[in-house]
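hey can u run this one w/ nicotinamide-adenine-dinucleotide bound, need the structure tokens asap thx
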Amino acid sequence: MKNPAIDRVMVTGGAGYVGSMLVPALLDAGYAVTVLDLYLYGGEPLAAVRDNPRLTEVKGDMRDPEIVRQALDGADAVIHLACISNDPSFELDPGLGKSINYDCFRPLVRASKAAGVKRFIYASSSSVYGIKEVADVTEDLPLEPLTDYSKFKALCETELLEEREPGFVTLIIRPATVCGYSPRLRLDLTVNILTNHAVNNGTIRVFGGGQLRPNINILDMVDVYLTSLAAPDEQIDGKTFNAGYENHSVMEIAEMVRDEAGGAVGIVVEPTNDNRSYHISSERIARELGFRPKRTIREAVRSLIDAFRAGKIPDSMTDERYFNIKLMQKVHLT
Ligand SMILES: NC(=O)c1ccc[n+]([C@@H]2O[C@H](COP(=O)([O-])OP(=O)(O)OC[C@H]3O[C@@H](n4cnc5c(N)ncnc54)[C@H](O)[C@@H]3O)[C@@H](O)[C@H]2O)c1
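ok here u go:
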């Protein structure tokens, strides 16, 4: 599955939730990997691969051009994951959020080109669409981001396409909400939240419940990036792909979680005036890249339940590491 034209992949945010599953998979596939990360959530998530001679870790801030230059040394491809990665963490300090999620984006892209990078893959978000009434939210629909986090994701997409040129292949991925176990676990994402509450509280609270939420199993998310790296240039160049699996309602997810958790887990429905539904179509990535998710949301739930039962997720209700907003409140990053 390795692309013979790509040896070293530089992954920003490689120690994050998705990154700490992706980096070992890239190493397994035969790539050399450089991680550029601030390690906001610690270095432990990459402990299992730290001894791999093909892994280089650069601890630093991607807003620092010298750190970026260092991390890009020898890189053939970049997968750009690092950011302040949800609305509440962004809104905690919008100036900080913009400096990380937007201001340093074009400099990163230009530094990549200058370093000889041939392929740049950007993790955008399916939240760039805002709320759509149509059943199939495809990549051609206009972007109507509702928050600054989503707005800057959309602006980065535009900049990346502006920077695209012959020999510098670009790809934008708009992932659904990711779910399932990772050594750097986030318990602030729909499926993961519900599973944590089912296993550790015995009760799931659902606000409304009819809203649709698109999800993708983290193992499939990793495969999206591996497939994108392996694909020939012409299959991805200048393209934008949604990446999701099932558009379930929040109540369906809650019921799935309850069934998997077993025992007497209760579902308590609370009223809400936030009935926004998000849903995406992932037909294009299937058609043009041949990528189809192979794992269900239920399997992601099971991976979490197994990890809870094995004691791999201690203090899951209280430890700030699992909740981006709480960690950001604690670290006072400037
Ligand atoms: N997780 C999801 O459900 C989801 C859905 C859609 C899109 N995405 C996108 O995928 C990407 C990865 O998401 P995630 O859930 O793994 O996020 P995460 O918050 O777990 O990881 C982000 C990583 O970036 C690092 N980082 C933050 N600021 C940095 C800086 N200035 N310099 C260097 N490193 C920095 C952090 O230390 C962290 O390890 C993000 O771009 C996110 O917007 C994620």
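The longest strand covers residues 169-175. anyway lmk if its weird
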